[in-house]
Each structure stands twice: as C-alpha cells, then as structure tokens.
Amino acid sequence: MINKAAETPNQAMNAENFQAKTSSTDSAPINFQEKTFLVIDDVVSMRSSLRNTISTLGGTRIDMAGNGIEAINRLEQRVYDIILCDYDLGSGKDGQQLLEETKRRKLIKNSTIFMMVTAERSYEKVVSAAELAPDDYLIKPFAGEVLRLRLERLLQKKTYFSPVFALMDAQDYRRAIQVCDKLLNSPNQYKIDLMRLKAEICLLLGDYGIAGKLYEQILAIREIPWARMGLAKSMFHQNNFGAAVETFKKVTESTPNYMEAYDWLAKSYSAAGDEEAAQQTLMAAAEKSPRMLARRKTLGEIAYRNDDLETAQDSYEAILEFGKNSALTSPEDYANLSRVYIDQGKCDQAMTVMKDARKTFKNSPESLLHGAVMDSLAYQKSGNTEAAEEALKQALEHFEACDNKQGSVSLDIARSCFQLGDEDTGKKVVADFIQTNHDDKKIHLHAEDMFRKIGMHDKGKEIITNSSREVIALNNQAVRMAQAGDLRGSVELLMQAVAKYQGNTVIVLNAVHAILAYMQTHGWDEELGKSAKEYLTTVKNQDPDNQKYLMLSDLFKETAKNHGLQI
Amino acid sequence: MTSQEGKRQMATHEELDAIDFAALFAAQIHDLKNLLFLLLNSLDETLNNYRASSGTNDEEPSNLALLKYNGQLINDKLIQMLSLFRFAQGPYVIDIAYRPVEDLIEEVVAEAKPLLGARSIAISSDVETGLCWFFDRDLAAGVLNNAIHNALQCAKSEIRLSAAVENGFLAIRVEDDGDGFPQGIMENGGRMKSLDLSGGKTGLGLYFSSVCARLHTNKDNSGRIALSNGGSFGGAVFTLLLP
User: Fold this and answer.
1) Fewest CB atoms within 10 Å of the CB: A235, A299, A312, A334?
2) Residues B104 and B17 placed together within one structural domain of the fold
3) Taking a C-beta distance cutoff of 8 angstroms, is the pair A514, A489 a contact?
C-alpha cells in the first residue's frame, strides 16, 4: 500500500510527496524533448492548441498535418514517436482510416504511439474500431496533465512489450510467443493484453486450438467482445462453422457496432453453405456503415451469385458513388456493375459504366482490358455479334499483355469466349485462372456461378475439376517423391511447377518447403537458397500475412543459421 | 393581426416544430465543448506564461484557478448531458477493459489539482499499488470528477479518494470534511424521480453517476452508487461500486 501525501498548491514539492512519486513506477519522468510528435487535426485552432499542450509537457519537435494526405506525406519522410490524431478530419479520410492505412503500409512501427483524439460525437466509432485500434484515445476537452500521464503510461507499456514487438517486426513469431509466456509468468497489469497478443500471434501462425483456449480463459474472467470474437475466429479456422456462426452472432447481438463481427458472421454462413443468410448479414452491416467499401463489394458478389441483381446493383453503385474522387475504386468495380447491368438487359448503361472507367483511369491497360471485355458481353446481349467479336479480340490482346491477371476479368473473358463459340480459348483461360488459384474456394464458386449463368453448369464443373486436379496431382507427386527419399527430384518437380503455374502461392510455398527440407539434409546450396529467398519475396509482396509464408520464413532463417549463414 | 401576419407566424411555428431539438442541442453542446476546450487551453497557456514570467512553479493566482474551476464545472455538465443523450439513443458501446485503478485515481486527482487553489483544499489518495479492475475509464472518470467537484463545494479543508475491493466489487470512495449530504439527497440521490428540473439544482450529476455505474455489468451483477455521511472525515462519502 502506498499512501499518497496530501497535497495543497502551497506544498507541492514536499519530501513525502516526492517519495510517493518515486516509489510509484507510473510516474517515471519522460523527457518529451527527445520525442518527435505529429499532430493531425483539420481545425487550425485545435492544432495550435494541441501544440501548446505538448510544449507545456516539454515537447519541442512537433510537426503538424491538416488532413490525411498531409499526414501520410509526413509519415513517409520521418519516423515519429508519438502521433496525436483527431478522429474527424473534415471531408477526406477519418482518423481510423488513416490509422489503418499507416499500419497497412507499415508507416508506423509497433513502438509508435498512436493516440486518437475524439469529440464525444465520434467516441463510439473510435471505441468500436476493435480490429485495428489506436493505442489510446482521449476525449476532448482534456487537461494537459492527463495527456502527460497517458503518454507516460503508454511509453511504459510500449517498453514493456518491446521485446515481443521486436521479434514480431522480425517475423520471428515462435520466439515472440515464448517471450509472451515468460512475461505471463510474473503477475502484472498487462496480463490480459499479453494473453490477447499471444492469442493473436497464434491465430496468425495457425495454432487455432491454442488461440481458442486463450480466448476461453479470458472469457472465463470477463465477457469481452474482442475475446468472444477471437474465440469465434479460432472456431472458423478449425472449420467448425456452425459454432462460429453462433459465436459471431453473439458478438453482433451484444455489441451491434462491432462491424468486423458482421463480416466474419457472413463468411461463416457462406462457409456453412447458407449464402442467403450471409447476404442478409452483410445487408444489415452495410446499412449501419454505408461507406465501408470492401464489405459492399463482398455483398455485391454474394448477391450476384444469389441472383439478387437488385442488391448487387445497389452495392456496386454505392461503391462507385462513395469511392468517387478517391483512390479506393478500381476498374474491376466498374466491371462488376457493368456485369449486373448486362444480366439485367441494360446494355447501354453497361457500356456507359465502362466508358466512365476508361475516363476515370485515363485509359490504363487494366481499364482498357475490363472495358473491352464488358463491351463484348454487352454487344452479345444486345445481339450485335460482329461488334462483340471485335471487342473480344481487343480484350484478348490486352489480356495477353497484362501481367497481373487478378480478379474476375478471366471469368468475363472466358464467358465471352464460350458465348461466341470459341470454346478452346475459353477453356484455356479458365484453366489458367483455376490453376493459379487451385485451392481458393471462393474463386471456384465464382467460376461455377459463371458457368451456371451461361447454361454450362456440368461442363464447367468438369473443366474446373480437371484444371485443379492437374495441379493437385503434380503437387502430390512431389510429396510422394519427397516421402520416398527423393528430395532433389521433389525440388525439381516443384520448381518446374512454379515456372508453369506462376502466381500460384501454394505451389510456390511448397517449392520453398521442399528446398528447405533438401538443404537441411544435404547442406546449404547457394542457388537453391537464392531461389527460395526469391519465392518467399514473391509471396510476401502478394500476401504478407500468409500463414504458411510466415512459417517458412521462420524455417528459412533457422536453416540458414544452422549452416552458419547470416541472413 | 392581419391574416397575412397570422399565416407568416404559423409558417414560422411549423418550421420550428420540424426541428429535432434533441439532435440540435446535442450538436450544439458538442460545439460548445470544443470551444470550451480551446478556452481552457488558452487559460493553461496564460497560467504557464504567468509562471514563466513570475519565476514560481507552484502558486497561481486564485482568480485564474477559480476561472478554471468554473470552466470544469461547465464541462462536467456538458459531458453529463451529452452522455445521457447518447445512452438514450442507444445502443451504447461501453469500453470496459482491465486497467490499473491507481492510474484512474491519479488522473482524476491530476485534473482536480489546478482547481484546489480556488479554495485552499487538500486532496489525497489511497490505492493499493497494482490493483487492477475492469471498468470504462471515461465513464468512471466522469463519475469521479463529478463527485470531486461536489466535494470541492462542500469540503472545509480536505478531500480523500480511496479504492479497495469489497465483496467482489471495486469500491471507489470520495470523502470530504464538510457537513455531509442532506437527508433528502441521501434518500433519493441518483434516482430518476430526484431530478428536479424546476429548482436551481437538477441533481443531474448524481443521476448521471448512477446510470454510468449501472452500465457496468458483470455476469449477474451491476454497478451502483452509494451516498452516506461519516467516513474518515465525518463529512459526505460518495461511493462508486463496480462489479
């Protein structure tokens, strides 16, 4: 027990008081003069007011930004220790979107303090942004002294967690877990935070059972929405979709503003095969937060597969409407709306949308590709076969030249080919698409739906199955070779497969795995090591959170270390 | 009155009727709070300049402290009204997290300190180091600020904050050495029916506190406030109980 000394303004620095301060770890003085600050607020007077408060604390290195774009520019040029950001930033991005972008682009480190400043009005949005939350938030008005106390505690917390963060930044997740365990051994105020962090790392690494147990332990202490959410995620990943649905539902009922829960609930319904319920869930969520474009897109896709063209149209129109004048839309969003219009028989509108796309994206190769293929489908629908064939020809030329064939464009091209009688090209395009994504269930669903819509359901299913079977067979052969002891043969087969199915993340990672297994028994090989590193970089650029990638990245470092190499 | 005038008045009435006053007031209170924030910050700045020029660190002119104190009281009331409005709009998100109780107490004491100079009152706290509990920091701070500001009006020389776990509840006490709560407030304080909109004091602060306490639930228990007289100083004792 400590007794804080009575204090009046006239005896502020008496001996007893001083003693209380030093015995309390909370009040470790921090030299704010060394810290770099970024203040983000759209109101000039608020900005200068915050700057004054910071200088009262002793801070001198203070930069200011008036909106999200300015803030990003600042963050690209300099590393800040402490960011104070107002939630309301006027017409552009809000503080939460800014936080998400900076985290996604890794413009701020785990050790950076991101403090959201909010008015009462936006408080709920800040608090319920549970997925990517700021380190702390302050409600205006606040006293300078409170800001100081909060920053001191956050710095203390960051210091406490710094060994874990450092390992996470180095993607050394196994050891990060070990450090969490060590810290959890001694009782402390961060116990719940530590359990949460450990559970999140476990989810990242695919240790779903352990993650689920941790969340259950937290829930036994207290019902907390993010813990319930984590438990539900662990159920989902263990393919326990029924239980996941029930658990996510519980979160949406108890915390209706926890928007991420709706997305996962819909995902669980989909995985359990109930597309109708998935659509209803997303519709409820879209109504609550209309500007969340990624969710609208998923809703559009599900509604389109459910043949609810009206809802699909609403969703895709909303994306273009809300995403206008921002970098948030892509030509694919225009193509999605155009496709709905075509199915509705509104061919003129379908073509106008693609005209807009070309204009918006200044005739970028991607917009020309999407534009040509949608035009071709629109001409077909309106009976102008000649123009349709011409547009398809153009589309195929753009398609050939395009390196990055992501998304639905392959299926649109294939559809156009099949409908115009060029079955061979259609089959090839679908096969390539499936072989690049042979284990992506969502893409299989999209492809099946496309075939169903053009009356080729059975035949389409055959094409899809055959295409993925080829990759699976090759992959299995490599596994068998490895099991039979022919590690070198397995490596060669998979490296050939990488060359053939470029962009297939699963194959690329299996090749890395084979290479590492080979080198563990036969010693380090300069060439193979280089290839493995290259493959890992490819996947990192496409899918940095891929679990198998994280695991193999760990293994790569370990293997290199065992052979005395510094990577 | 000509019928023309009558029509115009009617039109004005209809227009005013169409305004959603609850929402309008909420938005205006929000703006008032932002203005108050700027006002209090420039006051802090003035105090700092004063300290810098006078070379002293601890003493400040009592008229400025009084200004600050009254500013805080206005802020309290605005927060209470806005919060109650938000609770009523529902569903209200409450951010209950596991936090050190000491930090909470330290913060409200830090906020109260600049106000003490106005009335030469001492404030002290007694919290076990390392005591952590589940609570919504902003709601709890709002309740304690209100209790401290009430105590500042009644205390003769001392206010004391203490926290301890009692029967599965976190009990945070604000005690003063004043004359204690009047009987009427002790019986009905914090209840809806004690809200007296016609008199000078509305009792809004206590009502707000009791709502905030009740929003804290854990399994079958929910929070509450308790008012009594006596305690270590023989004055008023305000207790916030959180499950």
Assistant:
1) A235
2) no
3) no
**What residues of chain B lie within 8 A of the CB of A56, using their CB?**
44-45, 48
Write out pLDDT tens, residues B90-125.
Answer: 666 677 888 899 999 999 998 888 777 667 888 999
> Which of B107, B117, B138 has the CB atom closest to A9's CB atom?
B117
| Residue A323 · residue A329 · CB < 8 Å | yes
Element (H, E) at B228: strand B224-230
- Which residue in B44, B93, B109 is closest to A257 by CB distance? B93
Nearest CA in chain B to A43: B34
Q: Is A16 an 8 Å CB contact of chain B?
A: no
**C-beta atoms of A46 and B122 within 8 A:** no
Q: How many CB pairs under 8 A join A and B?
A: 134
Domain interval for residue A507: 478-562
* Domain closes at, from B89, B113, B145: B89
Residue A121 shares a structural domain with residue A184 = no
Calpha distance A170→A167 (Å, rounded): 5
Q: Which domain holds residue B126?
A: 96-242
Residue A543 corresponds to which tokens in the numbers above? 């899918």
User: What is the CATH classification number for the domain harbouring A486?
Assistant: 1.25.40
Token representation of residue A458: 């059975």
- pTM exceeds cut of 0.80: no
On whether both B139 and B225 belong to a single domain, the answer is yes
| Interface residue A10 vs chain B (CB under 8 A) | yes
Residues A112, A38 share a domain: yes
Q: Which of A44, A49, A157, A188 to mutate to test the interface with B (most CBs of B within 10 A)?
A: A49
Report the distance separating Cα A82 and Cα A58, nearest Å. Answer: 14
Model pLDDT for residues A299-338, shown as the tens digit of each residue = 999 999 999 999 999 999 998 987 775 567 889 999 999 9
d(CA A202, CA A179): 13
- The predicted complex's ipTM stands at 0.74
